[in-house]
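Record GntR family transcriptional regulator, 279 aa.
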Amino acid sequence: MIKIGEYNTLEILRETDPGLYLGDEEENVVLLPHRYKPEHFEIGDMLKVFVYLDYEERPVATTLTPYVHLNDFGYLHCSDVNEFGAYMDWGLQKQLFVPFSEQARPMKVGNWYIVHLSMDEKTNRLVGSSKTNKFLNNDNVTLEKFDEVNVLVTHLTDLGANVIINGVHRGLIFVDDIFEDIRTGDRVKAYIKQVREDNKIDVVLQAPGYKSIEPNANFILEELKAAGGFLPLHDKSDPDSIKNELGMSKKSFKKAIGTLYKDKQIVLKSDGIELVADQ
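=>
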């Protein structure tokens, strides 16, 4: 079966004026237009292609890489809006349609949105939706502390970064656990910090617990090395200075330098902290 909205590995059956016809083991066939055919090929070769629907809603193959695939989320640019809905650039010739009924808020040309791609059961057409919450579920969370996951950053708030975990769950990276520049649309590797009793999931970008030193401490170590071994910050420093310099709260900073001092990785001075010479 050739899967729409997904990658398929198909056999090159024949070459015609429109392009290459590709097929699967069940004798299903799809066209790969000439503009996408490989420079060198032979009949019988296997080719990995993405299959979607053309302007006449017929399956068509491409070697282009889409920004999102079926039942997943992507960060897409709105290129057009008309009386029917919005059209998103998803890396393919035909744009992805997002009807007004599937827009969390009215889309505007030029803006970027987190969009889910699904197959409309009524029309058998690929359709986008920015109402992402209806495709996420935290009722049955099987993730555990320290598990490595893939996350998509959906939006930033005063609390931190809201993320989609493994394309399935909602999660949050608290602001005190963010030590690098992340933005909406970023896809990053992360780790489960904890799954709460209400199934809310806390995520961090550094391996927590026994799999690394305390994440804030690790970050401060890297900052010390980058600064030549000294930072003019200490436990009496103004909280805003710590926040501006390191992006963390004073409480987190004091806990981190306490860990580093206990491990004999830094020296505490009256005007700052200094990396131990052999670090």
